[in-house]
Amino acid sequence: MFDLLLKTLSDLKEPAILWRLFVPFVAAIILVSLMGYGLFGVFLVSDFVTQNPMVQEMGVWTNEAQQTIGAIPFIGGVLIWIVGMVVAVIAGVLGVLLGSYLILIFAMIITGFMTDSLVKAVHDKHYPNTDYSGHGSIMGMVWKLTVYGFLLLLLFLVTIPMLFIPLINIIWFWLLGFMFFRYSIVLDVGQVILPEKLFDEVKHMTNWTPTLAVAALFLLSTLPLVGLFIPVLAVIALSHYYFDYLSTMPVREER
Questions:
Q1: Is the dihedral of CA 234, 237, 241, 244 positive or negative?
Q2: What is the C-alpha to C-alpha distance for residues 183 and 202, in angstroms, rounded to an integer?
Q3: How confident is the model at residue 169, as a pLDDT?
Q4: pLDDT per position as a tens digit, 182-193
Q5: How many CB atoms lie within 10 A of CB 23?
Q6: What residue numbers bound the domain in which 226 lies?
Q7: What gap in Å lies between CA 234 and CA 184, rounded to an integer?
Q8: How far apart are CA 106 and CA 99, in angstroms?
Q9: Are the CB atoms for 212 and 206 separated by under 8 Å?
Q10: How far apart are CA 98 and CA 224, in angstroms?
């Protein structure tokens, strides 16, 4: 994983890669930053959230719990204050995560149009003797992403009560975002570089080297504006991994 990340960072000095790194940044630094973090507030006060039966039941339970705790002599008020602080911190973290996701999605869309040129830049610099040919089509990829995104959305809706469990809610919300990010980048880069048979060998989540590398990059996307660069870095990292995989193919076939 660390070797893959070091290769990715070392490529940032290449002009052909460096200018592409800033394309999403220039395109979205104002628009996406304002909209990305602002839309979370709209989402929280929308009927979708406020009128959700599970949310309303949770609100009733919270009120009852506050009344019960508040009735405890001396320490009741202190406990309510502590719980309120914890809830505020969790809501703030979830807000940052959602804002980061919106920024990241916009950057992923822009980066998707540059994937071929980024892959070619990595190939020409480091793997000029490795031939590559992809598979699939753009429409096929869009369909797969739509289906996968819809399934994750359903999973999110089913697990909304988990958002009220401290710490678990942050981890779960982050994991859902990571799953979509990883699936999108792996599919995008894999279709450009690998034949379908080889892609099926390396696409799984349990292929830990690329999964951990992408996870490390995705974790950085929670920092303000950093998410605008992350898709480009992820494409570079996976390009290195897939080209390394292709270059060792004759050795694996002999074995």
A1: positive
A2: 12
A3: 80
A4: 999 999 999 999
A5: 16
A6: 2-254
A7: 10
A8: 11
A9: no
A10: 11
Coil/strand/helix, residue 49: helix
Helix, strand, or coil here: 131?
coil
Which value, to the nearest 10 degrees, does the dihedral of the CA atoms of residues 141, 146, 151, 152 take?
Answer: 90
* Residue 53: predicted pLDDT: 66
Average pLDDT over residues 69-78: 61
What is the number of domains present in the chain? 1
Better pLDDT: 230 or 81: 230
Spatial contact of 119 and 17, defined as CB atoms under 8 Å apart: no
pLDDT at residue 103, rounded to an integer: 74
CA 233 – CA 17 distance, rounded (Å) = 10
- Per-residue pLDDT tens digits for 223-233: 767 777 888 89
Contact criterion met (CB below 8 Å) for 189 and 242: yes
